[in-house]
Amino acid sequence: MSKIVTLTEAASIALHGMIIVAKAETLVNVVEIADLTGSSKHHVAKIFQRLVKDNFLNSHRGPTGGFTLKKKPEEISLLELYESIEGKIEITSCPHDKAVCPFNKCIMENVTKKMTTDFRDHLLKHTLADYLQ
Question: Which residue from 14, 36, 73, 76 has the fewest beta carbons nearer than 10 Å?
Answer without folding.
Answer: 36
